Amino acid sequence: MKLSIVIGMAYFVYHRLTNNQRLDIDIFWETIQNNRVFHVNNILVLLLLSALNWILEGLKWKALTASLKRISFKDAMEQSLGALTASLLTPNRIGEYGAKVVYYSKNHRKKVLFLNLWSNMLQMSVTIILGAIGLYFFLSHFEVAIDYYRILRSVAILIAIVVAGLFGLRHRRLQIKGFSFQKIKEFVQKMTLRLHIQAWALSLLRYATFSFQFFFLLQMFGITLTYFEAMMLITSMYLIASLVPTVFIFDVVIRGGAAVWLFGFMQINELTILCITSLMWLLNFVLPSVFGSYYVLNFNAWKTDNE
C-alpha cells in the first residue's frame, strides 16, 4: 500500500506535467531556461523559501500536537511531509487527515483529526483575511463586471445555513463517531491562548513566505510590479483558488486560471503566469512530496501502535 501511494503520486505528477492543455512541457522548460531560473543564486533562494515554508508548517504541527504528546521537530516534519505525499491525489488534500492519524495511537486519533482541521482552519483564516483585503484593493483599482445580486444571494443562503446549524447545535447534542460538539468545544478551550496565537502567527509567516516566493518569481521573469501591486493580485489569487473545491493534483490549473485572469488586468503575458504557477506547485508540493515519499515508505504502523 505504501509503495502504491508513492507510485501513484509519481504517475499523477508526471501525467500533470506532460498533459497540460494550457502549458506545453517543452515551452515551459524553454521559458524558464530563457529567464535564468536555473541560475545557482535563483535556485538557492527558491529552495530556501520552499524549505522555510514547510519548516514553518512543521513548527506549527509540533506546537499544536504538544497538547496531546510532545514530539520532536523531526517527527513533526516526517508527519507533515508524509501526509502531503499521501494526500496529493485526494480532493482538497482531505487524505491528509487520514495520513496523520496513523502516526498516533488509537486513543489520540480523534483529537489528531481535530488538530489537523484546526491547523488548516488557521491557515485558511489568513488566506481569507489577506485575500479579502487584496481583493478589495483589486476591485478598487480595476473595473470588473461582477453580478453583485448573485453574490449577495449566495452569501445570504450561506449565512442562513450557518445560523440554522448553530441554532441546531445549541439545542441538540451533535455527536459523530463519539466526538461530540461539546467535546470539541472543551478541547479548544483547553488549548491556551498563547498556543492559538503561536499557531496563527506561524500560519501568517508561512503565507508571507510562499507569497514572497511568488513575487520573487515575478521579478525573475522580468515583471516590474511594485510589491503592493503584486501582493494585491497574489492574495486575491490565493483567496479565489482556496474557495474552489478541486482535486488537489489539479490545484495548479485552478490557481493558474485565477492568476491568468487577475494578472491579465496588468497586461502580463499568460505564458509567464502559467510558468510561475507551475513552478510554485513544483517547488512547494511536488518537491516536498518527494521527501515525503521516503517517510511513507519507511512508515512503521507496528511501532506507532506500540508507542
UniProtKB/TrEMBL annotation:
Q: Which Pfam families match?
A: LPG_synthase_TM (PF03706)
Membrane-spanning residues: 113-139, 151-169, 204-228, 240-264, 271-297
Give the UniProt subcellular location, in the record's own words. Cell membrane
Please tell me whether the keyword Membrane is annotated for this protein.
yes
Q: What is its main location?
A: membrane
**How the protein sits in the membrane?**
Multi-pass membrane protein
Keywords on this record? Cell membrane, Membrane, Transmembrane, Transmembrane helix
> Which InterPro entries does this entry report, sorted A to Z?
L-PG_synthase/AglD
Record has Secreted as a keyword: no
Q: What is this protein called?
A: Lysylphosphatidylglycerol synthase domain-containing protein
Q: Lineage of the source organism?
A: Bacteria, Pseudomonadati, Bacteroidota, Flavobacteriia, Flavobacteriales
